[in-house]
Amino acid sequence: MEKRETSLSQYGEDLGLLFQITDDILDVEGTQESLGKTPGKDQKSGKITYPMLFGMDRCKKMVEELQKNLIFTSSDFVSTEEEQTFFQELPIYIGQRKN
Q1: What is the pLDDT of residues 9-63, one digit of tens each?
Q2: The pTM is what?
Q3: Transmembrane residues, as ranges (predicted)?
């Protein structure tokens, strides 16, 4: 695989992980009003989540680390300024979402 393809593939994997960790955090800390659904469903249904495995503080650090890595990695495959803006802002948006 070319470096560009490898970087894009890694970006996709890390973005998916960022989304899942953020979703797990929201399931613990979110409210019904902010989420638009009942929080705590993962725990009640017995699902193993990142906060259960690593704790909330570590999960929040993982989100920050993933955001930084994603922003850095994006420079390896973007070809326009618009793409750069999009791929650098996307992990920030996902990591800061409230629902």
Answers
A1: 999 999 999 999 999 999 999 888 888 888 989 989 999 999 999 999 999 999 9
A2: 0.92
A3: none
C-alpha span between 15 and 91 (Å, rounded): 7
Alpha-carbon distance of 10 to 48, in angstroms, equals 24
Task: Report residue 73 as tokens.
Answer: 């990695």
SS3 category, 59: helix
For 44-81, letters b (16+ CB in 10 Å) and e give: eeeeebbbeeeeeeebbebbeebbeebbebbeebbeee
Tokens of 33: 């009003």
Long-range contacts of 23-31 (CB under 8 A, 24+ apart): 24/49, 24/50, 24/51, 24/59, 25/50, 25/51, 25/56, 25/59, 25/60, 25/63, 26/97, 26/98, 26/99, 28/56, 29/56, 30/98, 30/99
